[in-house]
Amino acid sequence: MSEDTTNAERPVDLFTPVPGLDLGVRPSSSWRGLVTPRRLLATVVLSVVLVLVYTSGVQGTVTSGYQAMIAVAALLGGLALATYVPDPRASVASSPCATMAAAWVVLPAFVLASPAEPVTALMAIGAAGFGLLQRVRGGACGMAG
Fold this sequence. Notes:
- By secondary structure, the chain is mainly alpha-helical.
- Helices cover 50% and strands 0% of the residues.
- It has one domain.
- It contains four helices and no strands.
- The chain crosses the membrane at residues 40-59, 65-85, 92-113, 119-136.
- Keywords: Membrane, Transmembrane, Transmembrane helix.
């Protein structure tokens, strides 16, 4: 009895595309140009400022879990705002259509100015995350790099 060697155990590559299946998602290299030392420094500074701004309006007792959720929202907001730092190699820093992402970073300050509930922190994370998503995946709408 001979063993079939054509179907031998091969390592499975989970990241190869499925033939005939198009989900419309393409790997984006736009984020690679966004990571510069200036923007990383801006992210750290802006995240700290946003933590202070976001926590200043919170009403009631704040637990450590709630503070962690505020920190996540501030980090996402800091990342979104850091994309506005111009790249020295870029010819244009921003455009009017790119300002909407910054408004999504301001929104959590208003959302968090209510009683400290997990739902409000999740809404703040969602708003800041959407601002980052809009800034990174917003096409060629005023990318600062």
